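Exercise 7. Given the encoded structure of a 265-residue chain, write a plausible sequence.
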């Protein structure tokens, strides 16, 4: 029996960088909870962005944010993993040299960034609903950085492989969307966070269902008995999942969760 459902957000439940979610999704989350099935959002987004999207069911769900660096429930921190600050400083120096890119540092207090850009700021505030802080030098801020991310409006594909090769021995590096590369502690990923949550809740791998669309979801697939990649996912991602689900355009995850709720009747 499934007792825990974990789902990626961008590209799986909603279009990248939006809050366009079907309100029926909230109803299904509440219905599943009544049947003993918990829902966890698992995203590269920061916590405040996830909360803005899922606020109607804030008390009913669990938030895995920052690509597995935080687990929050009802405003309480269940798990957190920061980054080595010396390595962070080196990566920031490198990212400052990349043309046409903006880097962000994620904390529980929002994201910090150094390059002012109206389109980027609009995406963060109106798309992701992030709390943003423009600062002169991120490394001088008295905050714990839990994730660094590199944003390239034209798409990350042209530089993604080179950036990943340069830093893969220092950080866990994910191409986390068309325009994003994420960097976290080597031990941090959605799969490890999901495993930690399973241990906290006393839920087995076989009792877990997951959904995702990108390479940063593969480790999460491996921590679940039932794993779904949406049809828009890359072939490598789909091969890593047990099943393929319709995309968000067809309310694929919602349809599978509705069926799951019906099976518990």
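Solution.
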């Amino acid at each position: 029996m499934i007792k825990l459902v974990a789902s990626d957000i961008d590209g799986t439940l909603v279009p990248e960088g939006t809050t366009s979610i079907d309100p029926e999704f909230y109803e299904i989350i509440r219905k599943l909870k009544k049947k003993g099935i918990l829902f966890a959002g698992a995203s590269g987004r920061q916590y405040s962005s996830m909360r803005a999207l899922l606020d109607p069911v804030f008390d009913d769900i669990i938030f895995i944010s920052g690509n597995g660096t935080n687990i929050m429930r009802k405003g309480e921190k269940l798990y957190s993993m920061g980054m080595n600050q010396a390595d962070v400083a080196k990566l920031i120096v490198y990212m400052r040299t990349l043309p046409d890119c903006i880097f962000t540092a994620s904390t529980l207090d929002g994201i910090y960034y150094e390059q002012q850009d109206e389109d980027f700021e609009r995406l963060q505030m109106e798309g992701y609903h992030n709390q943003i802080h423009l600062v002169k030098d991120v490394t001088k801020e008295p905050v714990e950085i839990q994730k660094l991310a590199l944003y390239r409006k034209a798409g990350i594909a042209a530089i993604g492989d080179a950036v990943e090769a340069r830093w893969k021995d220092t950080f866990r590096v994910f191409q986390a969307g068309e325009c994003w590369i994420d960097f976290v502690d080597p031990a941090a990923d959605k799969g490890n966070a999901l495993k930690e949550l399973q241990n906290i809740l006393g839920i087995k791998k076989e009792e877990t269902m997951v959904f995702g669309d990108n390479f940063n979801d593969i480790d999460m697939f491996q921590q679940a008995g039932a794993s779904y990649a949406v049809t828009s996912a890359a072939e490598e991602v789909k091969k890593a999942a047990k099943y393929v689900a319709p995309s968000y355009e067809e309310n694929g995850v919602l349809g599978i969760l509705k069926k799951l709720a019906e099976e518990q009747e």
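Remark. The chain has a mean pLDDT of 93. Students should compare their own answers with the one above.
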